[in-house]
Amino acid sequence: MATFVLVPGAWLGAWAWEATAHALRERGHTALPVTLTGLGERSALATPEVGLDTHIDDITAFVVEQDLRDVTLVAHSYAAVPVTGAAGRLGPRLERLVYLDSAPFAEGTCLLDVMSGDVVDQLHRQVAEHGDGWRLPLPPFELLSTFSTLEGLDEDQLDLMRTRATSQPFSTFEQRLVRTDELGPDVDRVVVACHDAKALLDAGMPTLAFLNQPPWRRFHLPTGHWPMLSTPVELAKTLDAVVSSGGSGF
What we know:
two-stranded antiparallel sheet, 10 helices, 35% helix, AB_hydrolase_fold, hydrolase activity
């Protein structure tokens, strides 16, 4: 059985993983959702100084302080950036790296680099007008859907996001990944692609082409960008398949 450390994307806390974590535990796995500094139940710790490095430290400390071994580290959305930074630090503690509807980031890049200029401008306006110049509240769904599909979310799930989401310290989007340590050669590398990411991978997008080749394995989850809310049990089944399938993917 596997030990999953589940890292949520922007605006979310460990709460977002509750149903998936429960389903993983029913299958005999250890499932440990993480809340990053300034988010969820840790929102009181939010300051303008909370940045990408803070979240890299959060993930590293979570694994090391609990003395976790053979970890399957799962990164959803924004979490791909700090998880990329933390993964190499974990050394032999890390067994598997899973990017959930996300992908590893290169040194010197940040989350805003993968967004269009128009979206970046709108996010800056949100921060200036509604976030005291340093916080990014959950954008209106009309804006959010332009870069993160809401497919599969019903009104109850959208309301849950709206009421439980917390503002994201914007420095976490702006700060560039300074240095990433090399992963060990034996680390299993996996992408779980939802609909939009699958389309990009199938189209052979040049910047993502490496994810279609070994040592990467691909799995598909037929839903939108927030599978821990839209299809939490199916997500758990997919993650179970990831750890039980050896070297195969689909």
